[in-house]
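Notes on consecutive records. When two proteins share a document, each keeps its own sequence and its own token line. Never mix them. Below: protein one.
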Amino acid sequence: MVFFRAGSWVRFGRVRFGGLSGEASRTLGVWTHLAWVWLPCLLLLGGQTAWGQAGFLELEKGQVQVTRSPWPEFYGLPHAKAQLEWQDRIHSGKASQVRLSLEGGLGVRLWAETFLQINKTLAQPVLLQPWGRAEYQGPSLQVQTINALVLGQNSRFWVEANGPVTRVFVGQGTLQVSFLAFPQTQVALGPKEWVELTSEKPLPKPVPMPPEWTPGLEQGERNLPGLSGLEVTKPLGPKRP
């Protein structure tokens, strides 16, 4: 790593180039500095842009790791507190964004938003237990709670988990929800439908969502029917253009 003192670029302006006036020499010196120092740095970036922090974040009690693609990985979250905004430009030229808000307490509250193209189902489902609230969007996603496995196809959906109670809401696309206590029990959810299940009974039929319950980023908040002890997690930073 090379460091430059403030004003050190002036030295490049003092280099005399044959046949040039002092002013022209200084101008050429500045451009020479830019070419020698900053152009290689820009090339090393490879067109990637980032804001916020990425990688390991040391938390109060635990650790969170954010990978560049295709989805964040979480480690040691109990009693952790963190806020993160991360943006990366992948090789295909498409921009991906991850905005996270993690908070410990009685459990872990999670909100994840991504616009990164996911081309295949995740090898391991995103685990949301025993407490949590999350929003997901993608071509193919899996989310597992303490008593349910949610499979989404070209969908945008919300999951709330509070111990043995799981609520699943569909904004767009379709979902298949499996009840882990009864593996043969499944239900299909369509747009604007939701279902609630517990560990004591099989899945009921899906119910249409009342308009006032429809969640979404357009409102800039989570307008879900509240679960005890779970506060609304608001978006971090600007919305998607």
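Protein two starts on the next line and is unrelated to protein one.
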Amino acid sequence: MEHCPERVAVAVFVSFLMPAAGKPMVFVFEQLSQETRPEDRYMDCEFETNVAGDHQRPVETFRLGPQYLKQRLYQLSPAEDVNVTLAMAMVRPSQRFRDGMTMMNANVLTAERYGAVRRAGVVAEDDASFQRRMASLNPGTEGAVRTSHGDSRVS
């Protein structure tokens, strides 16, 4: 969106997990960290450091655990839901990007380019206050779709 805002008609963020223009990308993680107690923050997520390629720059990866998925991402879905089971089967390790210039630089997403793209968010009424706070940090975000149905799907 920052590089080619003219090519994006509207950006839709599920659960308002969206970065804010003029703030470093790590800001989203910092805000999320304020929502949870340290002992609950990562729950059963797995972290691993891989030094296979470059010992000077080890790569830290994480994998979301089943309890984290159930309690944080699919907390509104019925326990017997096939999509939750499928989501848990599809979890793969992801690289953590908390360090580095891209994550720490406040000028990565500018109001002139990223901020010029129309944005919308989807949030459930029962979602945590974090999503509502992130929406308030992104002025101009349109049409927050609120639903009280925990089994609604976004595809």
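For the record: Residues 1-23+106-150 form one domain.
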